Amino acid sequence: MPDTSRPARHAxxxxxxxxxxxxxxxxxxxxxVMDIRKLYAQSDIFTYDPGFTSTAACESTIxxxxxxxxxxxxxxxxxxxxxxxxxxxxxxxxxxxGELPTAAQLEDFEHRVTMHxxxxxxxxxxxxxFRRDAHPMAIMVGVVGAMSAFYHDSTDxxxxxxxxxxSIRLIAKMxxxxxxxxxxxxxxxxxxxxxxxxxxxxxxxxxxxxxxEDYVVDPILSRAMDRIFTLHxxxxxxxxxxxxxxxxxxxxxxxACIAAGIACLWGPAHGGANQACLEMLKEIGTPDRxxxxxxxxxxxxxxxxxxxFGHRVYKNFDPRATVMKESADEVLDLLGVENNPxxxxxxxxxxxxxxxxxxxxxxxxxxxxxYSGIILEAMGFPTSMFTPIFALSRTVGWISQWxxxxxxxxxxxxxxxxxxxxxxxRDYIEVENR
Length: 434
Ligand code: CMC
Known about the structure:
single chain, mainly alpha, three-stranded antiparallel beta sheet, 50% helix, binds carboxymethyl coenzyme *A
């Protein structure tokens, strides 16, 4: 909770000689924010901040990032501790309900999720309507949006029970949807979820099992999968989360809002970066070509960027990348992928970029997507599945933020304003006179 014991502080803005007092608000940690809600009414002036680089769009208690320190906290718990000691469904509980669960609460939560992993059977027709070569993200956007047509009893956002059911359904069904998008894409039969194995193992099984033979999930791979889910679970007000909040601000149903989040995540500047990064590492191919690509990334006339590098908030190491790098070593070791050429290129690229003044000056460090693709590829996933895996992991973050927003009494429909630079009023000219 914000500290209300401190005396109220204000910033004074002077516009054309007129002084306007703007309240300053403090969170528990992090920079203060200036409350500009009354600015337009008092001054007839808007603020201008494309990309929200200096704008806090909401109050939240879920996730905190200190970009300078490279720190990520969920409900106060550091991500490296959660990645090492916790597991994905426990982190889901923490994000959704605010506290770590007791053993009984965790058991109940896991049971509820497990009992909702199957999809309405008719949804298979939905998958079958797509072209086989459809990107799994395209299928996910469509199928998740279509959930609102299948689960009518959990679309009333004013009903807390329906909100809860929708939340559990989304977390539970997302692995099934992502796995089936993959199975459809490669022309294999859909594999149904099982109740006797954990969340990550279930996902691996639904992706890689076939009816013709038994499939036993390697516990080390399952742990690595779970850790990837955990590292992507939430990341405060990033583009896709803000998209979910904006969609939800109109009162849209949860499935429509999460489909909007998936669509936003798809872009290469956001969740699509893991696919783009692996493709880039393969294009580089051998360490001797790294200087050429670094030069391109620095060239203002070349749109090329080093994928998996840079972050709007982190101006230091992304703490998720550090855990991901360790996981990459573990998984490749387990799979006996010695001297993996992509990993060699990645490590050397990281070294050379970090030693380059351009990246140092702009504080560009590896982000979560730099190493995740290497692990996922080693596990057998094609690059097109990387972003769907990010989407399934982030679903809990989107839902937690969505629920928080619906409970926030200051919530209003999101409606940014603009700096209009188009034509002023002018009279219509008949076509024959143009
Ligand atoms: N390679 C080369 N130069 C870069 C890079 C990069 N990856 N990222 C930023 N820059 C430069 C950029 O050209 C700009 O230079 P200048 O000030 O001279 O114009 C400066 O650094 C600041 O960049 P920006 O685009 O203004 O920063 P931003 O906060 O708007 O963008 C970003 C952040 C993540 C979109 C960007 O760093 C980027 O495009 N990175 C590559 C894509 C990527 O890895 N995305 C995954 C992000 S983490 C997971 C997620 O959020 O989904």
